[in-house]
């Protein structure tokens, strides 16, 4: 009875009447064709996601949301910014710009930031936390390679919270990995924890950003930048979207034109994604990436520990050696 009550609560929070309806909603976040591991795999690859920077209008509201809803620890907070993370690792920078215009949904920019739980049990514990605290959800789904929950922060920045299945269970056909958007096994998840008690005191130390999903104006142009200039490998393509990764992860980056086809340069005064960092495994790789960027005619500015570039729509990408 308790498990069913929690499932009904989660469906209500997702605005769905059934698991299949919630999967349909989740399809809007990842696509509907054919989608323990964890950060120990996703963040051990030659290139992996580091930290994300967002521009926000209401710093206190958004900071408190990532602290309370997601469980990130506030590592630093000033009148104009906040840094949050897990296990002492910074994952999210928030920059205040009061009065900033809201970035349009048909503009290039952030589709969602995906927070990767270390284990399936951690995802289950977080689900009970979300239900207990009535955190609004926008969908949840089984992507074959992972299990995912979708939601939005108070300023409309998309979020995915997910756990990976074991990499040896992923189905590859050459360089293409099988993914889907199937109903999430909520009952199975909730058997891993006590659904009557929320014991999610905060994000587990191993939580990291597993992947980024971006809105872009043109898939081929985005692929030339993120694959040709940055060095990601394609792992899957479908109508209006593509997925790329390093080291045969299912995807460190999703790109789509579902809402943003033909989008021009981003407004760097609007809310939303400012930049994200890609951590690279060696100084030699960093030098190779800089050469690749310059050959592609992309910007390549030297910064502390690395290089800063920008995709064709103005989203900054920082390549850093860690």
Which labels suit this protein?
8-stranded mixed beta sheet; 2,3-Dihydroxybiphenyl 1,2-Dioxygenase, domain 1; alpha+beta; 322 residues; 33% strand; VOC family protein; 8 helices
How would you describe this structure to a colleague?
- The protein has 322 residues and is α+β, with helices and mostly antiparallel strands.
- It has a single domain (2-321), classed as 2,3-Dihydroxybiphenyl 1,2-Dioxygenase, domain 1 (Roll).
- It has helices at 2-13, 19-30, 39-42, 59-70, 120-132, 186-190, 219-229, 283-295; strands at residues 47-56, 73-77, 81-86, 89-96, 109-117, 139-142, 146-152, 158-164, 172-173, 176-177, 208-215, 233-238, 241-245, 253-256, 272-280, 301-303, 306-310, 316-321.
- The strands form 3 sheets. The protein has an 8-stranded mixed beta sheet with strand order 2-3-4-1-15-18-17-16. The protein has an 8-stranded mixed beta sheet with strand order 6-7-8-5-11-14-13-12.
- Strand 13 and strand 14 (253-256) form a beta hairpin.
- Helix 1 (2-13) crosses helix 5 (120-132).
- It is globular and about 60 Å long.
- TPR repeats lie at residues 203-236.
- Pfam families: Glyoxalase.
- InterPro entries: Glyas_Bleomycin-R_OHBP_Dase, Glyas_Fos-R_dOase_dom, TAT_signal, TPR_rpt, VOC_core.
- This is VOC family protein.
């Amino acid at each position: 009875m308790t498990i069913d009550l929690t499932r009904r609560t989660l469906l209500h929070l997702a605005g769905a009447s059934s698991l299949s309806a919630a999967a349909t909603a989740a399809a809007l976040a990842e696509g509907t064709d054919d989608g323990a591991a964890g950060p120990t795999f996703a963040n051990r690859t030659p290139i992996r996601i580091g930290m994300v920077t967002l521009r926000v209008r209401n710093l206190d509201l958004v900071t408190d949301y990532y602290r309370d809803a997601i469980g990130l620890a506030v590592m630093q907070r000033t009148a104009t910014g906040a840094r949050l993370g897990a296990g002492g690792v910074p994952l999210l920078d928030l920059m205040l710009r009061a009065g900033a215009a809201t970035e349009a949904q048909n503009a290039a920019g952030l589709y969602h930031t995906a927070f990767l739980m270390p284990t399936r049990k951690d995802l289950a514990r977080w689900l009970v936390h979300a239900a207990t605290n009535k955190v609004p959800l926008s969908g949840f789904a089984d992507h074959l390679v992972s299990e995912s929950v979708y939601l939005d922060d108070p300023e409309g920045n998309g979020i995915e919270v997910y756990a990976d299945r074991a990499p040896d269970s992923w189905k590859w056909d050459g360089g293409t990995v099988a993914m889907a958007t199937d109903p999430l096994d909520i009952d199975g998840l909730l058997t891993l924890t006590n659904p009557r008690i929320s014991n999610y005191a905060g994000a587990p130390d191993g939580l990291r950003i597993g992947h980024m999903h971006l809105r872009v104006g043109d898939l081929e142009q985005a692929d030339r930048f993120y694959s040709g200039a940055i060095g990601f490998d394609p792992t899957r393509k479908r109508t209006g979207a593509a997925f790329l990764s390093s080291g045969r992860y299912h995807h460190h980056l999703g790109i789509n034109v579902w809402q943003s086809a033909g989008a021009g340069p981003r407004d760097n005064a609007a809310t939303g994604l400012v930049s994200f960092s890609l951590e690279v495994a060696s100084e030699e790789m960093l030098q190779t990436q800089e050469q690749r960027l310059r050959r592609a005619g992309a910007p390549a500015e030297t910064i502390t520990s690395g290089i800063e570039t920008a995709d064709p729509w103005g989203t900054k990408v920082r390549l850093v050696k860690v």
